[in-house]
Specification:
By secondary structure, the protein is α/β, with parallel strands linked by helices. The chain has helices at about 10-20, 40-50, 60-70, 85-90, 95-115, 150-165, 200-210, 235-255, 270-280, 305-310, 320-335; strands spanning about 1-5, 25-30, 55, 75-80, 120-125, 170-175, 180, 215-220, 230, 235, 255-260, 270, 285-290, 300. The protein is globular and about 55 Å long. Bound molecules: nicotinamide-adenine-dinucleotide (NAD) and uridine-5'-diphosphate-4-deoxy-4-fluoro-alpha-D-galactose (UFG). Uridine-5'-diphosphate-4-deoxy-4-fluoro-alpha-D-galactose binds near residues 126 and 231.
Length: about 350
């Protein structure tokens, strides 16, 4: 089976490509390197000892998409290509809606032209806004997103629902990721944010390498066990495996619209994360508690039961594995790129 992976050179896309190749899928990657580097492609090949086809370009480009679909018999698409920085999306809404929504319209129209009707889409727990109930099930209300990034995911979810309503031959799986962290055990692929990281794990890793001086903990006065924010951190390799399960389900059912949370169902606080990182990696993380970050919520974790029951997916790697693998990647990357 041949899978087009858009954004396959990125953080989650590269880990998913590894799992796809390891499971004997054929892969075609489309990426414009707007947030990734060419060396990732070589590193995927090193990890898997397998090859894949690559096209450089922008997913908005229908001409390029038509070329890809005519040169390859694509059976399904996994779409990771998007911008993902929450803060930046507030500054650049037009760029975010173009890159996160218009690109999907290009993709869907070319998929239809070529009668390719299977799609796995990267959504986010951000679509739940400030959740009314914890743990969050797929039935929880979506909406009230607080930034264009989150709203772009909500829009695409609606577009996908409308496309399915218009054509029930589509098989679409919307995956709502919680907080992916960690890296492949080889240390060859991982998360490489541009500029100063906005997310916690890359920030902690850069404090550990001493590239950054001190971690700001955004608030210790939340209504949580230690006052810091609680999140459902999921190992990126588990998340990648979740995509294989979602594909298998689409192949089995052939048609339908499915929505799944991908998380562990366990919430950890910022202090849990810092302490675990320090313990398993034997490093010190300097931190100071500062004001809450605007738009943050106290607690967010998933009810992962639907994915367990319907996909047979359970995240296996624990917080220690996440912290160890993140540091293993960061050290190697830092040494090779300084
Ligand atoms: P990433 O930035 O590492 O990967 C995205 C990849 O897509 C990059 O390689 C980038 O160069 C490419 N890309 C972006 N726009 C493109 C375009 N128009 N045409 C071709 N390539 C393009 O991000 P990631 O963390 O791997 O996220 C992948 C997907 O998962 C995104 O849709 C993101 O919104 C979603 N997501 C991520 C998280 C997270 O915490 N990382 C959480 C929830 C959802
Ligand atoms: N945090 C800090 N200091 C930092 C960064 C984060 O204390 O420097 C705290 C936050 O306040 C929060 C927790 O660490 O309590 C996690 O923050 P992240 O920024 O790593 O992740 P978020 O939960 O805010 O958001 C992430 C992605 C979003 C996605 C959301 C749900 O960035 O794109 O998960 O999937 F929508």
């Amino acid at each position: 089976m041949k899978i087009l992976v858009t954004g396959g050179a990125g953080y989650i896309g590269s880990h998913t490509t590894v799992e796809l190749l390891n499971n004997n899928y054929e892969v075609v990657i489309l990426d414009n390197f707007s947030n990734s580097r060419k060396e990732v492609l070589e590193n995927i090949k090193k990890i898997t000892a397998k090859d894949f086809k690559f096209y450089e370009g922008d997913m908005i480009d229908k001409k390029l998409l038509r070329k890809i679909f005519s040169e390859n018999q694509i059976d399904a698409v996994i779409d990771f290509a998007a911008f993902k920085a929450v803060g930046e999306s507030v500054e650049k809404p037009i760029e975010y809606y173009t890159n996160n929504v218009s690109t999907v319209l290009s993709l869907l129209s070319v998929m239809k032209e070529f009668n390719c009707k299977k799609l796995v889409f990267s959504s986010s727990a951000t679509v739940y806004g400030n959740p009314e109930v914890i743990p969050i099930t797929e039935e929880c209300k979506t909406g009230n997103t607080t930034n264009p990034y989150g709203t772009s995911k909500l829009f695409v979810e609606q577009i996908l629902k409308d496309v399915y309503t218009s054509d029930n031959d589509f098989g679409i799986s919307i995956l709502r990721y919680f907080n992916p962290i960690g890296a492949h055990e080889s240390g060859l692929i991982g998360e490489v944010p541009t500029g100063i990281p906005a997310n916690i794990m890359p920030y902690i890793s850069k404090v550990a390498t001493k590239e950054l001086e001190i971690l700001s903990v955004f608030g210790d006065d939340y209504d949580t066990k230690d006052g810091t924010g609680v999140r459902d951190y999921i190992h990126v390799v588990d998340l990648a495996i979740g995509h294989i399960k979602a594909l298998e389900k689409l192949n089995k059912e052939n048609k339908g619209l499915f929505i799944y949370n991908l998380g562990t169902g366990v919430g950890y606080s910022v202090f849990d994360l810092i302490k675990t990182f320090e313990k398993v990696n034997n490093v010190k993380i300097n931190y100071k508690v500062v004001e809450r970050r605007k738009g943050d919520i106290a607690t967010c974790y998933s009810d992962p039961q639907k994915a367990q029951k319907e996909l047979g997916f359970t995240a296996k790697r624990n917080l220690e594995d996440m912290c160890k693998s993140a540091w293993n990647f960061e050290k190697k990357y830092h040494d090779e790129h300084k």
